[in-house]
Amino acid sequence: PEAALRDTIAGLGLKGFELKVKAVEKCGIRATHIDVDLTSKHHHRGLSDILKIINGAKLPDAVKDTAGRIFRRLGAAEAKVHGQPLEKVHFHEVGAVDAIVDIVGTAFGFHYLGIERIYSSPLRVGRGFVKAAHGVMPIPAPATAELLHGIPWSAGDIEKELVTPTGAAIVAELCSGFGDRPVGFLTEK
């Protein structure tokens, strides 16, 4: 429920953003669209700063644990691609409020819904280039490619970034397996 998500995100004590939640229709299917709109300039944070925010928040321990694991995985990938120790890595885009809200919101959603395992089909990452804090990067960006090591993916034919480092970290940490969609069937009620 929107109220539960808003309460969880408010428990982080972060400022400089607005959570926008609205009902939308996509291809004739009703859905909920959530945007994290930044209302002020974000800060570059290190992993310890982000973990301090998460661990100091009014969140269930399972949510803190999941969000912490996702950020540690993301930090390890950033450290590797930048050739720095983990404690020296300063997150640019992913240290921003929106990435913290995305990761904590995802961890909370899984916890709230009681989801214990997820599986994914191969990912389409997009193609082309993306502008990042370190300049223009190929898609997938280096941290995304590092996070997707061992995960099936392809570029596809869409000229834009479809999998961000934040999304890749969530998938890499939480997916139990990858493969084609299972065969579906219907039964009478």
Q: What share of the residues lie within helices?
A: 25-40%
Give the end-to-end Cα distance, rounded to a whole number of Å.
Answer: 28 Å
- On the 0 to 100 scale, the average pLDDT is 90
C-alpha Rg (nearest Å): 17 Å
DSSP helical segment count:
6
**What fraction of residues sit in β-strands?**
15-25%
Biggest sheet architecture:
2 strands, antiparallel
Structural class: alpha/beta
The stretches of 5 or more residues where confidence is low (pLDDT under 50) are none
Number of strands: 10
State the gist of this model.
It is built from 6 helices and 10 strands.
Present the secondary structure layout.
Layout: H1 2-10, E1 17-26, E2 29-38, E3 45-46, H2 47-55, H3 61-82, E4 90-91, H4 97-113, E5 118-120, E6 123-124, E7 129-132, E8 135-138, H5 142-147, E9 153-154, H6 165-174, E10 175-178
Parallel strand pairs: 5-10, 6-9
Antiparallel strand pairs: 1-2, 3-4, 7-8
Helix pairs in contact: 2-3, 3-4, 3-6
Could you explain the architecture of this structure?
It is a single chain. Helix content is 39%, strand content 23%. The protein is an alpha/beta fold and 189 residues long. The strands form five sheets. A two-stranded antiparallel sheet has the order 1-2. Strands 3-4 form a two-stranded antiparallel sheet. The chain starts with a helix and ends in an 11-residue tail after the last strand.
Please name the defining characteristics of this protein.
two-stranded antiparallel sheet; alpha/beta; globular; 189 residues
